[in-house]
Structures are given as C-alpha cells and as structure tokens.
Amino acid sequence: MNALFTYIPGMRSLAKRFGIAVPSKRDAARDLILETLPRGSVGAEIGVHLGDFSEEILTTIKPKVLHLIDPWEFQESPIYQKSLYGGEDGHGVEEMNQRYQGVCARFTGQIENGTIKIHRAYSNDALESFEDGALDWVYIDGNHLYDFVMQDLMLSFRKVRPGGYITGDDYGDGGWWQGGVKKAVDEFIKDNAVTPIAIKGGQFILRRE
Ligand SMILES: C[S@@+](CC[C@H](N)C(=O)[O-])C[C@H]1O[C@@H](n2cnc3c(N)ncnc32)[C@H](O)[C@@H]1O
C-alpha cells in the first residue's frame, strides 16, 4: 500500500486532502528498501543506534542472518557535536553502553538462535571480517562524513555478492555531515559497477553488478 504513495504521482497530496494518513517520504522510501531486499537473505545494517530499523528488517525480510554493526562509542570530537553519538544527544560513554545493552536485550531470542549477530565495532573492521561476496545486502547508516561513507561503500562493494544490494540512509544536502552521504554515493555510482534502483526520501538503493 505504501508503495502506491511512492509511485503514483499526486497520490500523496490526494490522500492528505481526504485526511488519509500517509507515510513520510522517508518511511515510504524505507518501505521500498524493505520490499526490495530478498527474503531469507544475509545482510548487514551499519549504524544500529537503538535497533528500531533492525526490528523492521527482522520482521519484514526475515533474514537468515542479520549482522548489526555499531561501535556504540561516544565521540568527543566537536565535529560530532550534533550527531546522535556526540555532544548532548550522545550523552556520554555510559549512555552508549546502555544503548548497546538495550539492543542485546531487545534481540535476545534472535541472538541465541543465531539470526542476529551483533558486532560492537566500527564498520570498516566489521566488514573486513566477512568473506568477499558473503552478504546479499548492506544498509549504510553509520558515520555520515564523506570519508566514512565512501569507505563503507567501497568495502560493501567487495562484501556484497554480484546482484546484491548496497543501500543506505540520509542521502541529501546539509546535515551536520555537510552532504557527505550524497557526495560519496554520487561519486561511487560514477566509478563503480552498480545500478541505481532508487534514490528518494533520503534513501538509496544500488544493485551491485
Ligand atoms: C543514525 S544512527 C543509526 C540509526 C538506525 N540505522 C535506525 O534507523 O534505527 C547512527 C549510528 O551509527 C553509529 N556509528 C557511528 N560511527 C560508526 C561507524 N564508523 N561504524 C558503524 N556505526 C557507526 C552510531 O553509534 C549510531 O548508533
């Protein structure tokens, strides 16, 4: 149903006029990602935070294995002042430990049965630990600064099998990361064998050729 609002021009404003609740463009685009990623697949979410999107992935895609990658580390540098893991929103080291423990508690059953594997690590270290081509897809939503996103994209290209998907969040201008996601994704598309499937609502879906 949500896809209807995404694909048919004018549907969103029409529905709003009649008081029908419509998902935000971001939610609709995330739904498209969830519709696109293969059921029963092996994938990785980079940047987990509290595990909200992880839960959606779990219930929709029903992955064979879902790797959750996040260092849950408080960043002191002023660059991260406005991020969720620095400055006031980051709250400090104790808060990061609590977020990590909260995610472990939230998915206890799936961790025990092997469906979820938690990597408390930076994305480059966690991704390097996988065999090349071992993943069906990656969702990139970690450090949004240009260098980090480019690194996530390049590593994902190696770790995702041909025909798999490289996807992610916060494609757009501005933000505390100064458009780093958009710049990295645009350059990456130009220089690598990927086909853009959709770029909308701040989300991007690329298929690795
Ligand atoms: C925007 S939040 C993720 C939100 C989550 N994907 C969701 O939609 O519910 C960004 C997360 O990225 C994590 N992060 C920051 N730097 C990272 C890195 N280098 N590798 C992996 N995760 C990172 C932060 O700790 C934070 O929890």
Task: Describe the overall structure.
With 209 residues, this protein is α/β, with parallel strands linked by helices. It has one domain (25-208): Vaccinia Virus protein VP39 (Rossmann fold, 3-Layer(aba) Sandwich), CATH 3.40.50.150. It has helices at 2-7, 11-17, 25-36, 52-61, 87-90, 93-106, 108-112, 123-128, 146-159, 180-191; strands at residues 42-46, 65-69, 116-119, 135-140, 160-168, 194-200, 203-208. The chain has a seven-stranded mixed sheet with strand order 3-2-1-4-5-7-6, sandwiched between helices. It starts with a helix and ends with a strand. The relative contact order is 0.15. The mean pLDDT is 93. S-adenosylmethionine binds at residues 45-49, 52-53, 69-72, 84-85, 122-123, 141-143, 148.
